[in-house]
Design goal:
Elements lengths: L1 H35 L2
Length: 38
């Protein structure tokens, strides 16, 4: 039972990280292109 809970927690954390990355990606790309274009 405990293994299933840990697995669910790991999946939720991974989903959350991907969610944050998908939100932040455009800003990061803009920031990098800004630096490279100098």
């Amino acid at each position: 039972m405990k293994k299933i809970l840990i697995l669910l927690l790991a999946v939720m954390v991974t989903m959350f990280i991907f969610f944050l990355l998908s939100i932040l990606a455009p800003y990061v790309v803009d920031y990098i292109t800004e630096i490279l274009s100098r």
